[in-house]
Write a structure and sequence with these properties.
11 helices; mainly alpha
């Protein structure tokens, strides 16, 4: 999530509109992806849509997992399939969260005081810290998907290897997509906005019912798709990153921004995938 597309101030009087669940889902889908979604006629509060963020993560993870499956079916190896998977997800989201990660890394690493950090984070140019953060996170996502597919292929001899490992990759991407977006909304709920004119501030305070609904959806997906040890590992990873990013954000800029929410999603997604991979390989 980034602060670059702040809605005009003339929407402020109507920002409290809640809309139907379908309206909220469409707004969330439009916000977090590049899909051409017909929007409701009446504006809907962005903070009311956060319950649907994990569902958007499911769709993004599922799309990436399907690409992995198709690539394997056409004879490509795990490394090529993993790169195509990440490419699909980035195209689907428009690199929204990756942009937030880069801006956050530049701001936290390049500024000495709060105002300067926020100024750097708003700058559209990318710096050294942003490049390094993107390389590290992208590299880890690529490596863990490849390693996870390889480890699953080695322990699934009684099944067709392509089907079993691709199915497991889909599950890992769906769970990490849902939980990482729940982590993003939890940080949004827990912290005050660091600036008053960014998208996350204009969107308003996340309500407890929306947050709880999103957390329940994300946790429910995890319990439905993973074995108990993997659920524990995934939830622990998501919770740890949320806490770390919360403390770091308060110390650095005094709260959250849209960029910080995006960075939280990216880092927690990597942590969840690593946790799933570590728990799976150790079995």
């Amino acid at each position: 999530m980034t602060d670059s597309n702040t809605p005009p101030d003339d929407t402020a009087p109507r920002r409290a509109a809640v809309g139907t669940f379908f309206d909220q889902f469409r707004i969330a889908l439009s916000l977090l992806t590049r899909l051409p979604v017909p929007l409701p006629r009446e504006p809907v509060s962005l903070s009311a849509t956060v319950w649907a963020f994990p569902l958007i993560g499911v769709l993004v993870g599922l799309a990436g997992g399907v690409v992995f499956f198709v690539a394997n079916r056409f004879g490509l190896g795990n490394t090529s399939a993993a790169l195509l998977t990440l490419g699909c997800q980035i195209l689907l989201t428009g690199g929204l969260h990756e942009d937030g990660l880069a801006d956050t890394a530049d701001g936290f690493g390049g500024g000495r005081i709060k105002d300067r950090k926020l100024e750097i984070m708003r700058d559209s140019r990318i710096g050294t810290y942003g490049v390094l953060a993107l390389l590290l996170v992208f590299g880890l996502r690529f490596a863990v998907i490849s390693e996870l597919a390889g480890s699953l292929a080695s322990i699934s001899g009684e099944y067709d290897e392509t089907v079993s490992q691709s199915g497991a990759i889909i599950i890992a991407l769906v769970v990490s997509g849902a939980l990482s977006r729940a982590a993003m909304t939890a940080l949004w709920y827990a912290l005050l906005p660091a600036r008053q004119d960014g998208l996350s501030a204009v969107a308003g305070k996340v309500g407890a019912p929306s947050l709880v609904a999103g957390l329940v959806i994300a946790a429910g997906i995890s319990f439905l798709l993973l074995d108990a040890p993997l659920v524990v590992a995934s939830l622990a990873a998501a919770t740890s990153i949320t806490l770390i990013m919360s403390v770091l954000s308060v110390r650095q800029v005094g709260g959250h921004t849209g960029d910080i929410l995006g960075a939280t999603q990216q880092i927690s997604e990597v942590a969840i995938l690593l946790a799933i991979s570590a728990a799976t390989i150790s079995v």
